[in-house]
Write a structure and sequence with these properties.
This protein is mainly β and 90 residues long. It is built from 1 helix and 4 strands, in the order βαβββ.
Length: 90
């Protein structure tokens, strides 16, 4: 059996940067399918414009997905534009 040390916290320098999630690097444009309405729409827009991708990924071709309310949202990010490619009920 191999013993692996457990990392309980991480140290972050005061001047550390996360360019993918820094202010100003969030997507600026949002493309949604036509006909999408409802009270959850504004919340969904806010979530997408915060760039919910994992911080270590920046692939323009990759389709990302997450569940929100009773929807499964699939989207891509190309440059500064988020494009929702599919919304399905769950």
């Amino acid at each position: 059996m191999v013993s692996v040390p457990l990392l309980l916290h991480r140290q972050v320098s005061a001047d550390a940067r996360d360019d993918h999630h820094d202010e100003g690097h969030h997507p600026q444009g949002l493309e949604l399918p036509d006909g999408l309405v409802g009270e959850k729409l504004e919340t969904l827009k806010s979530i997408l414009l915060e760039d919910p991708r994992p911080h270590y990924q920046n692939d323009n071709e990759r389709v990302y997905a997450f569940e929100f309310a009773d929807w499964r949202i699939k989207f891509t990010v190309n440059g500064s534009t988020v494009t929702v490619t599919e919304i399905t009920d769950i």
